Amino acid sequence: MSGHSKWSQIKRQKGVNDVKRGASFTKMGREISVAARAGGGDQDGNFRLRLAVERARAVNMPLDTIKRAIEKATGGGEGEQFEEIVYEGYGPGGVAILIETATDNKNRTAAEVRSVLTKAGGALAGAGSVAWQFEPRGVITLPEGGNTEELELIAIDAGADDVDSSGEQVEVYTRPQDLEAVRRSLEKAGIKIESAEMSMSPKNTVELDASKARQALRLVDLLEDLDDVQRVTANFEIPEELLAEVGA
User: Model pTM?
Assistant: First the structure.
């Protein structure tokens, strides 16, 4: 598992303040809008929309707000239309970074992403420079507790590619096309699911010393603070001492 994945777990566990929660609602609203516009407003027939709605509910986004986002995206009327753009970049220590965005002004978004990267010791890269270092995967997160060996066996039997139980949570990895089927199988087996989403996983990771890792973590945070940024994925490992420090 990449160090950034562990960092994401830590941030989920620590929770978010009111300002961050508002930012999450903004990002979730955009994700729901993009999914609904692309595949329609029926969650049963639009797996991506169903995942987006579930993620929104996980951060306590009100149902009325979710409904309005879907209606605005599928109603055919005026309103913001968001375009998905993935930026590629490098961070401290040569870390590869993917920055997934949903924007109604790509010139503004590109300028903001470039500015953050530059100020934090990174650089914007050309298309294809970084993307080859990542691969799409489904990720199902299970809460801690229970018999991890049994969970691993059930997940593999359900069609999962891999299971990581080394952290405080169990993460089940699937091929993108198998995410929904594996999730349903786990639910039928009575296993509680904390989250299920599509992600980009690094094929290989870069080990950083504590100083460079702090810089890389700071860069990820600054990028995630941008309204247009939906998700940031990087390929660095966090030293154990720093992992314990940020998770305290």
Answer: 0.81
